[in-house]
Specification:
Helices cover about 25% and strands about 35% of the residues. It contains three helices and seven strands; from the N terminus they run αβββαβββαβ. Strands 1, 2, 3, 4, 5, 6 and 7 form a seven-stranded mixed β-sheet that branches.
Length: about 140
């Protein structure tokens, strides 16, 4: 029987996997489970990840772990690209498994109002890509 991963370790594993997958540039990770949301802006340059002045990784891990405690959640990684454009990847996270979403699945999620199911307009300059596999262990 596999041991259960602690929420803080799950959050740390997720964050490091996203930092690695994101590549260079300015990014924002959003994790949502029900009404709980964690938002983590970060910047990658070479092999370094910067969280911003005065932001500690331990605080980011704690905030993210509180979101992950609630069971399955959605993860979106958004990358600022050329002026006025951005790219988004998404995953469904359940336990220690991050299931990559296709561009179409993420586009449908982004274009639907989560409370009512009503369609939302396409956000200008936002492009959806198939998410890569993340290793969370």
């Amino acid at each position: 029987m596999k041991a259960q991963t602690l929420p803080t370790q799950r959050a740390e594993n997720l964050l490091y996997a996203l930092f690695d997958a994101a590549g260079d540039g300015c990014h924002v990770m959003t994790a949502s489970a029900g009404v709980s949301t964690a938002v983590v802006p970060f910047h990658n340059t070479g092999n370094r990840t910067y969280l911003g002045h005065g932001i500690e990784l331990a605080d980011v891990v704690e905030t993210t772990s509180l979101t992950l405690v609630g069971g399955p959640c959605g993860i979106v990684l958004r990358t600022n690209e050329e002026e006025g454009t951005s790219r988004a990847w998404g995953w469904h996270l359940d336990g220690d498994t991050a299931t990559p979403l296709t561009a179409g699945e993420l586009r449908r999620a982004y274009s639907t109002e989560w409370l009512t199911g009503a369609p939302l307009p396409q956000e200008p300059g936002l492009h959806y890509d198939d998410a890569p596999h993340l290793s969370l262990i």
